């Protein structure tokens, strides 16, 4: 990563996971109020964590989904289910991660996440037809 700044690396990784359309929408909605926050998540989450060696994007995707589901961050769960199309995590992978959520974070958290994942995967399937 010596050739790129953490922001540049983060933006490249963010786009590869979430897709250009999502990142472009987030950028278009940015205001002076949250521009620093957008830079922070691009550098920190995407440039420092998601860009590290050691885990694949698929593995990071599943860990992220489980953590977001356990914490009840529904909008982020939906976004990261959509991102699995870019990370290589399959619907079966998502199912297995959410079963772990049920055991380690509680059935209500997993139940909510399963509902969200089913909705997002159905939308993906409808779009593919």
Sequence-ordered SSE layout with sheet pairings:
Layout lengths: L5 H13 L1 H10 L5 H15 L7 H15 L2 H14 L3 H15 L1 H22 L1
Describe what this molecule looks like in 3D.
Helices cover 81% and strands 0% of the residues. The N and C termini lie far apart (40 Å). The protein is globular. It is mainly alpha-helical. It is built from seven helices and no strands. The chain folds into two domains: 1-53, no CATH class; 55-129, AhpD-like (Up-down Bundle).
Brief digest:
This protein has 129 residues and is mostly helical. It is built from 7 helices and no strands.
Overall structural domain count: 2
Amount of helix: over 70%
- Give the distance, in angstroms, between the N- and C-terminal Cα atoms: 40 Å
Q: In the CATH hierarchy, what is the superfamily of the largest domain?
A: AhpD-like
Largest sheet: none
Average pLDDT, all residues: 95
Question: Number of helical runs?
Answer: 7
CATH level-two architecture of the largest domain: Up-down Bundle
Cα Rg: 15 Å
In total, the number of strands is 0
Structural class: mainly alpha
Q: Predict the CATH topology of the largest domain.
A: AhpD-like
Task: Supply database-style keywords.
129 residues, 81% helix, mainly alpha, 2 domains, AhpD-like
